[in-house]
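OP here, attaching both records as promised.
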Amino acid sequence: MFKKLRKIATTRIAGTFLYVMIRLYSATFRVKMENEAEWVETLEKGGRVLICLWHQQFFIAVRFLSRYKKYNPCVMISRSLDGDIGTRVVEAGGVSVARGSSSRRGSAALKEMIDMLKKSGLGAHILDGPRGPAGVVKTGAIAIAHGAEALIVPAFVTADRAWYARSWDRFLIPKPFARITVHFCSNITLPPLKNKDDFEAQRKNLENILRPHLILP
């Protein structure tokens, strides 16, 4: 029991510490938001928005999601040790979390995420997490958007200087004082699904929009 409590405490402390470090580090960036007004207007009018991006660019998402704290944003994060830390990080930034993934507690996590998005109006989703393959959109985003009757906003990040981790997604960490642009693509309104082919077509369309913006060194 003591070891378990220590593990939980360490994760909570680590997550909060990481969030503070990310905020301090990212304060050196020169950040530009592109095409932000389009989907913010939807939120202000009472609509729902699901921002979708690659796992590779999640570091920047921690920074920009806290920008929208007044909308009570939500995100789904896997049930793993890394996910525990990630949860603490985004929660410290005012983001609500549904725990689960396609392999762990998938359907329950999707339902929780849909319910949270219905209430808050703003959610974010990592398209190819938690384990890839990189650049392949999984089914969660389409299911969440339909369930919550939300627009999808594809998003990607560019940085003029960055490091890339030796991980499955080549995780991107911008270098100090990098110029960052968060690009929000045009809103996608998903038409009603008539069959499985429609679902796959919508998934593939989202993948085709964002795949060219998967940043590789």
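Record two, same layout:
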Amino acid sequence: MLELSLEQILINIAILSVCGIAAGFLAGLLGIGGGIVFVPVLYFVFIHALHVDPDLAMVLATGTSLMCMIPTSITAALAQYKKGNTNTDVIKTWAFGLILGVIAGSLISSFYGGQWLAILFGCIMIVNSLNTLFRARAKPMFDSLPRPFFQNVIGFLISSFSVMLGVGGGTLTVPVLNACSVPPHKSIGTSSAVSLFVCIPGAIILLTTGQTPDNAPFGTFGYVNVIAALCVIPLSVLTAPLGVKAGKSISPVTLKRIFAIALLIVSVRMLLSAI
């Protein structure tokens, strides 16, 4: 097992704490679960600080990220619901597809996860961010959401990819809802609720069904590093409501651009590290 000095331990705790602050604020502001911050930071900490194999590091990063997002997503979702930003009809319609997608994505990640997930993460997020950035003022592509069957297909795809990437679903849900004429603040609020359907069952499956690798860092159970999660969670919970409050004073176009730029920076860095 890797021996770390006190200085290295404190540095890692500081990095993870800052990660928690940023992820919590972004979760409330943008309706994401915080995974676009958690996954890259955890990935780099596992590789560079704990010297974990890159293939294992990505799977641990996704599993740990989902665990970290549970309290953050609950806090953000409740705050958005209280402000009337949640479209409950969408949640009810998508529920079945979301749950099936989580199961499928968790199993794929458990048995076939590796560094290819980091490449997939980077590619999907770059496309997503560029689409959002250049279409910030564009009109929606559709007048309304499709029929319930196709909405469930959308939910399935969003949740399966989100679990494999260790994100809460907001990064994919927000652009889809915006394209279907759902107002930005409603899209963000609804995506916070979608994150609950992704991170809670996803984290439980990866925690309980994954066999803990022999070379995993201390504190790892299944594909979740509990110690890293405990360093991140407290501050992320405290800052999520601040993000929701800040979002109320920002215009929809500005919200879209912040969302896109944050995605682009993280995804490019992630892709370059994985290639």
